[in-house]
Design a protein that fits this description.
9 helices, 26% strand, eight-stranded mixed β-sheet, Rieske Iron-sulfur Protein, 395 residues, alpha+beta, Naphthalene 1,2-dioxygenase Alpha Subunit, Chain A, domain 1, 2 domains
Length: 395
């Protein structure tokens, strides 16, 4: 379990917090390109800050503080003007650096605009997503993960807002045993209540965790499987700060889960899916973004989906769970390793160093970054759906 200080360190993400400083060392997705094609301005909540993302009439991207310094109106309700964003209230204009460049209601000789500047951050477009960097300069390279940058794939993005702290979501992926209990035994209890037949259940023989260049590899060995299995030899990664990558149970399909803390009490998740082309298909030109629900229209948890089951156990821990009340066991070695590593990475940032997973070497980023991927999935979790669509998923 964590002590009170470490619990605060790992859960608080706002400006001036240790974890906030750590998370600001990374690029995070804040929108899909398709969203700004529908409307050129969007409110963004990330790491405890409320910002206005916009695409100017000249095609350039900007990300600035949402509150207009004039009278406090939201710049997310603003209009674009060339490469500028103009407040709807009195048309004060700001460039991408946050500098006020026009106050049209003021006298021509007014110098007011010269001393007005709001926060601004770097943004880049990659793989159908818009990414933001909120940290200190110089910014690292935006990581070019293989399936995000490849243009010969079919892609789409699911989006979910989860009303709980980011750590409760991210550490789920270094907890391999919950697959056996939550997604096998629990779902069979639900199915039995509904008069439905049970799904196959398997037992873990061993679990292991390994630090690699970008994070932690989670490995499992099922009872009856050989140690040559891909799940044991390769595993699949949690790449820092708290993202996940794995192969679907169907061939040639992968999913990245980018977890972005909006603030201490909400996390935005982008489910980036990509697969190889089928015969006669063409690559995705415009990557769609769709809702990835985890509640029914009546507000109940979707107990027959992987997402619904996961969100049930994450959200019911509380908005920000008190980790000091936990009682970890041997089966929680992955969670303990993740937390310990995060605390070590915070210390690196406090020393002025780059944390694990930050990319500055162009050679590592070209043509793209390949994360460890199982070539053959050893166990197929049949009958349980991921709520982003009707395809069956493996974790």
């Amino acid at each position: 379990m964590l002590n009170a200080q470490d619990n605060e360190y790992l859960c608080r993400v706002g400006p001036g917090t240790p974890m906030g400083a750590y998370l600001r060392c990374f690029w995070h997705p804040v929108a899909a390109v398709a969203e700004l094609e529908k409307w050129p301005v969007k409110k963004v909540r990330i790491l405890g800050e409320t910002l206005a993302l916009f695409r100017g009439d000249d095609g350039t991207l900007g990300l600035v503080a949402d509150r207009c310094p004039h009278r406090g109106a939201s710049l997310s309700c603003a209009m674009t003007d060339g490469g500028l964003i103009r407040c709807a209230y009195h048309a004060w204009a700001f460039d991408r650096s946050g500098q006020c460049v026009d106050t049209p209601a003021e006298p021509p000789e007014s110098k007011l605009k010269n001393r007005i500047k709001i926060a601004s951050y770097e943004v880049q477009e990659l793989g159908g997503l818009i990414w933001a960097y909120l940290g200190r300069s110089p910014a690292p390279l935006l990581p070019r993960f293989e399936h995000v940058v490849r243009e010969d794939l079919v892609k789409r993005v699911g989006f979910t807002e989860i009303p709980c702290n980011w750590l409760q979501i991210s550490e789920n992926n270094v907890d391999p045993l919950h697959l056996e209990y939550l997604h096998m035994r629990y779902i069979n209890w639900v199915r039995a209540r509904r008069g439905e037949p049970p799904l196959p259940v398997r037992k873990h023989a061993r679990i292991e965790f390994e630090i690699f260049e970008y994070g932690i590899l989670k490995k499992r060995l099922w009872e009856g499987d050989s140690e040559d299995s891909q799940e044991w030899q390769v595993g699949h990664p949690l790449f820092f700060p708290g993202n996940h990558f794995f192969r679907f149970d169907t061939a040639d399909m992968v999913q990245y889960q980018f977890r972005v803390p909006a603030d201490d009490e909400q996390t935005n998740v982008y489910w980036y899916e990509a697969r190889e082309l089928n015969s006669g298909e063409v690559p995705t030109k415009e990557i769609p973004i769709v809702d990835n629900p985890w509640r029914t229209p009546e507000g109940e948890y979707m107990l027959d989906t992987i997402n619904g089951q996961d969100m049930m156990v994450m959200v019911t821990q509380g908005t920000i769970t008190d980790h000091t009340l936990e009682n970890l066991g041997e089966s929680d070695r992955g969670v303990a390793l993740y937390r310990k590593t995060l605390l070590e990475e915070i210390e690196r940032v406090e020393r002025g160093e780059d944390p694990m997973g930050v990319v500055r070497d162009p050679a590592k980023n070209t043509p793209f970054i390949q994360l460890p991927k199982e070539e053959v999935v050893g166990y197929v979790l049949t009958g349980v759906q991921n709520s982003v669509n009707s395809d069956y998923r493996y974790k």
